[in-house]
Amino acid sequence: MKIYYNKRQLEANKHNIKRMWQILRSAINKTNDKSNLPQTFIIDGKNVTDTFQIAESFNKFYGNIGKVTSENVHNLNKHFTDYLKNFLNQLMNCKL
After folding, report:
1. Looking at the whole model, is its pTM more than 0.85?
2. Which of 31, 44, 78, 84 is 20 to 30 A away from residue 19, measured at CA?
Protein backbone atom coordinates (compact mmCIF):
# COMPACT_ATOMS: atom_id res chain seq x y z
CA MET A 1 0.00 0.00 0.00
CA LYS A 2 1.31 3.39 -1.02
CA ILE A 3 0.33 5.12 2.23
CA TYR A 4 2.50 2.75 4.26
CA TYR A 5 5.37 3.19 1.82
CA ASN A 6 5.11 6.99 2.11
CA LYS A 7 4.86 6.73 5.88
CA ARG A 8 8.05 4.66 6.03
CA GLN A 9 9.80 7.04 3.64
CA LEU A 10 8.83 10.06 5.74
CA GLU A 11 10.03 8.37 8.90
CA ALA A 12 13.32 7.37 7.26
CA ASN A 13 13.87 10.93 6.02
CA LYS A 14 12.57 12.88 9.01
CA HIS A 15 15.84 14.80 9.27
CA ASN A 16 15.98 15.61 5.55
CA ILE A 17 13.41 18.34 4.87
CA LYS A 18 14.13 18.48 1.14
CA ARG A 19 13.50 14.75 0.73
CA MET A 20 10.38 14.94 2.92
CA TRP A 21 8.91 17.62 0.63
CA GLN A 22 9.72 15.45 -2.41
CA ILE A 23 7.87 12.54 -0.81
CA LEU A 24 4.88 14.72 0.09
CA ARG A 25 4.70 16.24 -3.42
CA SER A 26 4.88 12.77 -4.91
CA ALA A 27 2.09 11.55 -2.60
CA ILE A 28 -0.29 14.25 -3.83
CA ASN A 29 0.92 14.01 -7.46
CA LYS A 30 2.19 17.60 -7.44
CA THR A 31 4.26 18.41 -10.48
CA ASN A 32 6.29 21.42 -11.53
CA ASP A 33 4.35 21.78 -14.79
CA LYS A 34 4.14 25.49 -15.44
CA SER A 35 2.15 25.25 -18.68
CA ASN A 36 -1.10 25.91 -16.82
CA LEU A 37 -0.10 29.27 -15.35
CA PRO A 38 -2.55 32.11 -15.99
CA GLN A 39 -1.68 34.71 -18.60
CA THR A 40 -3.75 37.43 -16.94
CA PHE A 41 -3.70 38.67 -13.35
CA ILE A 42 -6.01 41.12 -11.63
CA ILE A 43 -3.88 43.86 -10.10
CA ASP A 44 -5.58 46.74 -8.32
CA GLY A 45 -8.89 45.70 -9.91
CA LYS A 46 -7.53 45.67 -13.50
CA ASN A 47 -6.76 42.73 -15.79
CA VAL A 48 -3.01 42.82 -16.49
CA THR A 49 -1.19 40.80 -19.16
CA ASP A 50 2.11 42.70 -19.26
CA THR A 51 4.67 40.29 -17.81
CA PHE A 52 6.89 43.09 -16.48
CA GLN A 53 3.99 44.67 -14.57
CA ILE A 54 2.94 41.25 -13.23
CA ALA A 55 6.52 40.56 -12.08
CA GLU A 56 6.75 43.98 -10.42
CA SER A 57 3.48 43.38 -8.56
CA PHE A 58 4.64 39.98 -7.31
CA ASN A 59 7.97 41.53 -6.27
CA LYS A 60 6.19 44.31 -4.37
CA PHE A 61 3.87 41.83 -2.65
CA TYR A 62 6.55 39.34 -1.63
CA GLY A 63 9.06 42.06 -0.82
CA ASN A 64 6.70 43.46 1.81
CA ILE A 65 5.05 40.30 3.11
CA GLY A 66 7.48 39.83 6.01
CA LYS A 67 6.94 43.35 7.31
CA VAL A 68 3.17 43.23 6.84
CA THR A 69 2.89 39.80 8.48
CA SER A 70 5.05 40.74 11.45
CA GLU A 71 2.89 43.79 12.04
CA ASN A 72 -0.28 41.66 12.08
CA VAL A 73 0.79 38.52 13.97
CA HIS A 74 1.10 38.26 17.72
CA ASN A 75 4.18 36.62 19.21
CA LEU A 76 3.19 33.09 20.27
CA ASN A 77 6.58 32.20 21.76
CA LYS A 78 6.60 28.95 19.77
CA HIS A 79 9.42 27.60 17.68
CA PHE A 80 8.55 26.67 14.09
CA THR A 81 9.52 23.04 14.77
CA ASP A 82 6.62 22.77 17.24
CA TYR A 83 4.25 23.03 14.29
CA LEU A 84 6.24 20.56 12.20
CA LYS A 85 6.22 17.98 15.00
CA ASN A 86 2.45 18.26 15.30
CA PHE A 87 1.99 17.94 11.52
CA LEU A 88 4.34 14.97 11.26
CA ASN A 89 2.70 13.23 14.22
CA GLN A 90 -0.70 13.61 12.58
CA LEU A 91 0.68 12.36 9.28
CA MET A 92 2.38 9.35 10.85
CA ASN A 93 -0.73 8.40 12.83
CA CYS A 94 -3.15 8.48 9.90
CA LYS A 95 -5.44 5.48 9.51
CA LEU A 96 -6.75 3.90 6.32
Report:
1. no
2. 78
